[in-house]
Design a protein that fits this description.
Blueprint (H helix, E strand, L loop, with lengths): L14 H24 L5 E7 L13 E2 L1 H4 L8 E5 L7 H6 L2 H8 L5 E5 L19 H15 L3 E5 L7 E2 L2 E2 L4 H14 L3 E2 L1 H12 L8 E4 L12 E8 H16 L14 H4 L11
Parallel strand pairs: 1-3, 1-4, 4-5, 5-8
Antiparallel strand pairs: 2-10, 6-7, 9-10
Helix pairs in contact: 5-6
């Protein structure tokens, strides 16, 4: 017996119920999608492997600071900077002392690792530090990159920050061979690069040979700093203002990279661009 087509039609009274179910389902799906889209991004971490230009100093070393001590000022509270840098270390001695193993053990997926060496790798008279820029220095850099990637972290290579060395008003590139090696390893391993050597040289030339002393560890005995009773003439390490200036260069470099951390960089960074020192590594 052929079914009556009229029996297949929904009762008019059922349509409001069906429409309500459809709209309710769409509303739930839409709310879920909106919630996912508007969800607050999770926290992120930046790790630093490096030398004295990035290491943490206590109050007894004031006015000496490093860029690692103030890098946090380039980010909000959703980013944490973890500084594993240590004075006097090269890519070689950092590994030999087990520091890379400790750092790698703390890395997790989504972290960013800044790899900043070169100063002490140049120490030809110190066997524990020295590395051949065309040999073990490159091998060591590859090891840092591999350690980060093995944990799902993002490695970033930094060329060494410049020393304060001028000739006829121009900054001398004292890291040229090692900076070149880092650039080439970055290309070879497809690792993001911040060319801090070039950026800091340009920054220093704008400041000039005289004014730039304020950014480095130039103090007089009359300043009466406990750790520097006879004063200091140091063209490698930074004062507070120099540390903030270099940290700002690094943050600017991070902002240009195609990495998740780039989206966390503050557009306005008063803690890194302030005109006068605070006397502490605080951001404000």
């Amino acid at each position: 017996m052929e079914c009556d087509r009229r029996t297949r039609r929904r009762s008019p009274a059922a349509w409001p119920i069906l429409l309500a179910i459809v709209f309710l389902g769409a509303g739930i799906a839409g709310a879920a999608a909106a919630s996912k889209h508007n969800a607050t991004p999770g926290p992120m971490r930046i790790f630093i492997a490096g030398d004295s230009t990035a290491a943490i100093y206590g109050p007894d070393r004031f006015p000496q600071m490093s860029w690692g001590m103030v890098l946090q000022c380039g980010f909000g509270g959703d980013v944490t900077v973890l500084d594993y840098a240590r004075g006097g270390r090269s890519t070689k001695s950092f590994i030999a002392e087990g520091r890379l193993d400790v750092l790698a053990g703390d890395l997790a997926k989504g972290d960013t690792l800044l790899i900043a060496f070169g100063h002490n790798d140049e120490s030809a008279d110190v066997a524990a530090r020295f590395t051949d820029p065309d040999g073990d220095f490159r091998d060591n850099l590859r090891r840092y990159v591999a350690a980060a990637r093995a944990k799902g972290a993002e490695p970033v290579l930094l060329t060494p920050v410049t020393r304060r060395s001028f000739e006829d008003g121009k900054v001398v590139d004292t890291h040229a061979i090692y900076a070149r090696a880092i650039r080439e390893v970055a290309t070879e391993t497809k690792t993001p690069l911040i060319d801090l050597d070039a950026a800091s040289m340009a920054w220093l030339e704008k400041i000039g040979p005289t004014a730039s002393k304020n950014d480095f560890m130039y103090t007089a005995a009359s300043d009466r700093y406990w750790r520097f009773p006879e004063g200091s003439n140091d063209d490698t390490h930074f004062s507070e203002m120099g540390a903030r200036g270099v940290a700002n260069l690094i943050v600017e470099g991070l902002a240009k990279l195609k990495l998740p951390i780039a989206k966390r960089v503050k557009a306005v960074r008063p803690g890194l661009t302030r005109p006068v020192p605070l006397g502490t590594p605080a951001c404000q």
